[in-house]
Amino acid sequence: MHVRDDTPPSPRGQRVALIFALAAQRLSDYYEHGQWLTEAQGATLAADWLARSKNNLPLAERRRLSALSDELARRIAGQLSREAGLHTAHEMTEALDPNYHSELAEIMLAECERLLDGAPAS
Fold it and tell me: pLDDT digit string (tens) for 79-99?
């Protein structure tokens, strides 16, 4: 999911990564606590993650990415058994580490790209 050198991600890559990370967090929260993050909570979490790397995005864009991650996470949860959903959430969370490789995470990352490309711009 991450570039292995010190090159910062492109703006598009950053947005795809945020959708992916937010979807992973949403799934983890859903399976651990039985609750979904709200769009606003996702946007705030995205702002926190961006701030760590000294980046930022406007609130409207963070909310849009949050909504896309919610769409993906709910679709995953609706299509998989609890066990398969837990496994998917775990794989996605582990894949946030640039040294972890997962075919499943690559498939989910491609879906995040598709969602971003198909979504109307804010």
Answer: 999 999 999 999 999 999 989
Which of 14, 8, 30 is closest to 109 using CA atoms? 14
Q: What whole-number distance in Å separates Cα of residue 39 and Cα of residue 37?
A: 7
Nearest 5 degrees, angle CA 10-CA 69-CA 31? Answer: 130
User: Measured between alpha carbons, how far is 122 from 117 in angstroms, rounded to an integer?
Assistant: 12
Cα separations in angstroms, 32 against 27, 29, 67, 71, 104: 8, 5, 20, 19, 20
pTM for this predicted structure? 0.88
Q: Which two tokens stand for residue 38?
A: 């709200």
Rounded to 10°, the helix 11-33/82-94 angle is 140
Amino acid identity for residue 112 in this structure: C
